[in-house]
Amino acid sequence: METESLDPLSAAFAALADPTRRAILERLARGEAPVGDLAAPFPITPQAVSRHIKVLEKSGLISRRTDKQRRIIRLNPQALKRTSDWVNRYRAFWEGQLDSLGAFLETQNKEASDGEPR
Amino acid sequence: MASLADGMPATDTATGDPLSVRVRKTVNASPERAFAALTEPDLVVAWWGPAGFASDWADIDPRPGGTLRIHMAATDGSYEGVLRGTYLTVEPPTRLSFRIADHCNGAPELFDAAKMAPTLVEIVLRPIDGGRTEITLTHSGFQDAVVAGAHEGGWSGAFEKLAQAVATRPSSPSPRT
To answer: Can you give the pLDDT at residue B18?
Structure first.
């Protein structure tokens, strides 16, 4: 996926689409880590891991710093939050929908019991 | 799958979609009645929309391949739109799914349905004790939709207006008549 032409939100969504990149993010959620440590759990080449890290970096979801010639990667929680905020608005919409449906069914129940005294 | 700290959206293990939404609610009605309320136009119009919204009309053909069009507007006039989609699964009274192809006729300048990757809504109704029904609704496909739209010049404006309208409403359901 070419992500350079995307706006930040779309780039983050594109980056999140890949399971390896999600696994890297989950690892980073526990704290920053050197590139070497991030690559270790995956049965793919270090070059492939490096490419995933580049995609994540371009998407803004992670950033890197250099510490004694080691590349240290950290999560950017704000960038991640933008994507979850976006999705959570749809959550609010559907929660509201099911609340309305539930209230409607209760109204039906009441009308039915009013109509059949017993 | 472990969830990420700081608001990482949960991955839907069923769909593998990292950005899906799943909501669940128990309603005090049988699956048959709940399913009818989801698929019969007169009933849909009676409840459709979160608090602060209402529907004037619904045009629904609940069979696989059939289309649905459901009007929804904010009662204060700040939003008006039509959800358009196509049913994939219609299995009364337990399972219903449809693709949403279009969500915001109210903002046509922001929107071109032909450029929009559809998102998927799946609804599962499960009978539970006391004649009640647990409804689980999953909305997925955002990743493809947003990325496809971004390539074509801005998908997000379409749902964005709806989402913002919803976000500014009170969260509790308003009484309906």
So the answer is: 57
Q: Which residue has the higher pLDDT, B69 or A13?
A: B69
User: What own/partner pairs with CB < 8 Å and gap ≥ 24 does A67-75 have?
Assistant: A70/A34, A70/A35, A70/A36, A71/A34, A71/A35, A72/A32, A72/A33, A72/A34, A72/A35, A73/A28, A73/A32, A73/A33, A73/A34, A73/A35, A73/A38, A74/A28, A74/A32, A75/A25, A75/A28, A75/A29, A75/A32, A75/B6
A91 touches chain B (CB under 8 A): yes
Q: Kindly report the CATH class assigned to B21-167.
A: alpha beta
- Domain positions in chain B are 21-167
- Residues of chain B contacting residue A99, judged by C-beta atoms under 8 Å apart: 25, 50-51, 172-173
Q: What is the mean pLDDT of chain A?
A: 85
Nearest to B37 among A16, A92, A101 (CB): A101
**What are the structural domains of chain A?**
8-76 (1.10.10.10)
What distance in Å separates residue B173's CA from the closest CA in chain A? 6
Say which of B19, B43, B163 has its CB closest to residue A13: B19
